[in-house]
Amino acid sequence: MSSARTLIRGGLVITAADEIHADVLTEDGRIAALAAHGSAAAESWTADRVIDATGRYVIPGGVDAHTHMELPFGGTSASDTFETGTRAAAWGGTTTIVDFAVQSVGHSLRAGLDAWYAKADGVCAVDYGFHMILSDVDERSLKEMDRLVEEGVTSFKLFMAYPGVFYSDDGRILRAMQRSARNGGLIMMHAENGIAIDVLVEQALAEGRTDPRYHGEVRKVVLEAEATHRAIQLARVAGAPLYVVHVSADEAVAEITAARDKGLNVFGETCPQYLFLSTDQLAEPDFEGAKYVCSTPLRPKEHQAALWRGLRTNDLQVVSTDHCPFCFTGQKELGRGDFSKIPNGLPGVENRMDLLHQAVLDGHLTRRRWIEIACATPARMFGLYPRKGTIAPGADADIVIYDPHAEQTLSVTTHHMNVDYNAYEGRRITGQVETVLSRGEVVIDQRTYTGRAGHGRYIPRGTCQYLV
Ligand SMILES: NC(=O)NCCC(=O)O
Ligand SMILES: [Zn+2]
Ligand SMILES: [Zn+2]
């Protein structure tokens, strides 16, 4: 059980707003107080447990607003369960995930959501919430959206890609946006022109272009940018806010920037894979490129500058992982000889906080911006703030003691995700999660897992707190 009172002493507390040399007192799962090192208040505190954070950062637990534990996709399922995936999240300093429940075509939102509640119930290591994937927008599901918002499932993902699976046409998208404009829900958009992409897939395969790298070639930048533009215009017509997921291309960032310059409530998320990986990986020989098949796809390296710039200028607000792992053996291999059968998705829930810390050292981000895009803004965007995403009195005691000087090498041999490769294999990172508290309970103790399946609680969410 958690110590009723824990004192974290001597660290540098970093939030999106501040960097302060302060001790942090937690009590019964919440943050009770902060006070300057050596101050009379801090010296007066007694605690059941004292953690020495001297020379360490004390940061809010990460909020990963885009994961797919156990997602059924392409005839198989993402290899991390809620149990293994949330444990890996804890190892990587993420203490809240927002995963995607899926509506199956012909079925209700209720049935999909209940199935996802059941998968996660009693097995998660850290806290979790749900978005809802809308695969079948009709009168019934539109009405159900209202009830879900009241219930704490306040965001809905729609797909302009994957015809025949998750795809919604423009009419359905507009209806869902109109509904969300009324009920306070936030539409999350997978913006790629899936109808055009399917034509290019068919042509590529007919011409014998079957290797993983063609996955990237057919999913063209212009088809991401066009869909992003179209989604923004539909959201304008509906008067609804829009959150574009997994933005990968410079031209898509430009569309979001133009919309924001008009003062629209349009937001963008990118993911570590687009910031750190590129078509170089997708082109790896001997089918190794399959490890890097995801949608939107990895882009040529030149796109990364626009993504980093977007994160700095707040044209992109969030970095989530889109964690959707498939093992190379037996899963990615389903697409040997036909790239369109490679299950889409990359692992990353464990690596996000570290990769972004490396980005701080590499000069892409400030420390506070690191915490903003990985903790505070995702919490605000998805109605979890200030309970999650910050270190302040009253917030959940989700706290990471981060050693900014530790050296590590990302690898499948040391990671905790249930997948047989690491997308960042061999990458050297300075900085490492040392200790993690989830609602006051130490779940990683100086790099030993001390958490348990079932500690993580379902968190009903409020509506978006990021609107202008
Ligand atoms: N991104 C991806 O390749 N797989 C997960 C499903 C999605 O987010 O579109
Ligand atoms: Zn998507
Ligand atoms: Zn996704």
Automatic annotation (TrEMBL):
Post-translational modification: Carbamylation allows a single lysine to coordinate two divalent metal cations.
UniProt KW Protein transport keyword: no
N6-carboxylysine modification, residue list: K157
Organism of provenance: Streptomyces jumonjinensis
Cofactors (names): Zn(2+)
Similarity field: Belongs to the metallo-dependent hydrolases superfamily. Hydantoinase/dihydropyrimidinase family.
CDD domains xrefs: D-HYD
E.C. numbers: 3.5.2.2
Top-level taxon: Bacteria
Domain Amidohydrolase-related residue range list: 57-442
A single Gene Ontology CC term: cytosol
UniProt gene name: hydA
Keyword Metal-binding attached: yes
Protein's UniProt name: Dihydropyrimidinase
MF term (GO), any: metal ion binding
Keywords per UniProt: Hydrolase, Metal-binding
